[in-house]
Amino acid sequence: MTCEDAHLNMHDYISGELASEHHKNLMDHMDECPNCQEYFRQTQHIQTTMRDFMQYEAPFELQTAVSSILANA
Question: Which H helix or E strand runs over 5?
């Protein structure tokens, strides 16, 4: 596995979407590649931060307005 392949697979791995048959190849590559280990750490941190940030609840007024618009669509 190349570093480019590993980078592409990391996003799917972190989000739980990487097919299980690709896990071992990714982990084997990261065991051997300090650059990919760091890239993985950073990518995981960014995705976790974004996921936490996206856990936003819209204000009640906005929820009501959107619900009303959808009901009348």
Answer: helix 3-14
User: Residue 20 in contact with residue 33, Cβ under 8 Å?
Assistant: no
pTM: 0.66
Helix (H, G, I), strand (E, B) or coil at 56: coil
pLDDT of 5 over the 90 cut: yes
Q: How many domains does the chain have?
A: 1
Buried b (16+ CB within 10 A) or exposed e, 2-33: eeeebeebbeebbeeebeeeeeeebeebbeeb
- What domain range is 27 assigned to? 3-71
Q: What is the pLDDT of residues 22-45, one digit of tens each?
A: 999 999 999 999 999 999 999 999
Nearest of 9, 11, 4 to residue 44 by alpha carbon: 11
